[in-house]
Amino acid sequence: MTSARNASLFSATTLAVLLLSCTAQSAEVSTTPEGPSEEPSGEPPGEELRAFHRSSDLLSASPIWRSFIAITNRAERQFEEEFHNQLKYQFPGVKWPQICCPVTNCSMEICLRRLAEGLLKCMVLLKHVEKEYPANSILPEAKHYSVALVNQIKEKMEHPERIAELSEIQEEQLLQEQASGDTFKRRINAYSILYQLHYFLIDGKRALTKVERRSHKVHGNLLSV
Q: What is the pTM of this model?
């Protein structure tokens, strides 16, 4: 593998495409999970959702997070099999939508909106993955869980109509930029999308958990007054 080819993985175009607008004070998203990714429970999605609604009203407790994180984790093995361990499954130069402001400055509504906007952008980027790997077994579940999680986020928001979705022109531009370059670069872009989606979900769940805990703590203090 030539140094010029490796350098192409972190082109300015790729970095720009995967950035999502956020305030200057937004916290940087961690690219290292705390502990191993969770495995799916084995229950059908419908059963998982019914169990979630019976047990908790916290969005961070939804079983969709666990299942979604587990299926995106499978991309690493696919990458290693395709490239025969000649490349590391790491994309340190690539950025993904930032999750949230620091907990002290981020409201629940803002946190939910940014999560939803990141997932909607991810749903567009998954079209590039599908174009390069139409038979990839991760895609059907990733699409399903993306839609389901966005719907749950909207249910928790006071103003879901404020979620900014990409226009048709923006979607086309995003996909065209991902499709630039030779076959190798396009496929690396596809794996970088799955890689960043995996850690977006891990960090998103973590950030949401912190915001929910703070919100419930404040609510509890108000009730005790």
A: 0.71
